[in-house]
Every structure is written in structure tokens, then in C-alpha cells.
Fold:
Amino acid sequence: MSKTAAATAVVCWFILNISIGNLNGWILKHHSLSYPVMLTTVHMLCCWALSAISLLFFMRPAEPQSASRSTIEKVQTLSYAFCASVACGNMALQYIFVSFAQMVTAASPLFTACL
Structure:
């Protein structure tokens, strides 16, 4: 992957991440959605569908390899942790400003390094 493609991917990721955070906050505050876990479920289903489409049409591996049982268990554990993190983040958006949530998210590598 070229440096330009990598930089473009990172910039797109930042823009989409900020947009999703703002959109989630807007939905929860302005539409009085009292089901942040439902919002997380819809978010995860959309991520799954778009990832499948991306893998199918744009990032098809040359020869797929089967994963071991331990690898599947590790990925499954990380998936549950990520879903729980997004659900808690969406629940928190009902009580805090989106900008504060983004600041805490951006500082999470610092917190991790301090631990």
C-alpha cells in the first residue's frame, strides 16, 4: 500500500469516525431515542453488512485460509468487547457532549500507555 493510499485511508477513517459520533449524539438527543443499545445493534449490523460487501467485491483474498479454533475464540472475545464498548459509548452520549466523548476516545491510547 502506498503512503498516499494509507494517508487517505486514515483521513477517511477519522472523518467517518467523527461523523458517526456526531450522528449518534444527534439521534440520541434530538430524536429522544431511549434505546442506545438498539442504536448499537443497528450500527453493528450495518458494519457487518458493509464489511461483507467490501470483502466480497473489493478486498477478496487470493486464497482464504481457515482459522484455528483458538483464533476464532480470540476474535470473538474482541468482538464482544468492541460491541460492549460501542453500546456503553452510545449510552453515555445521552448524558455527555459528543465533543467530550471524542476527546476521551482520542486520549484512550494515553490512558492505555499510563496503565
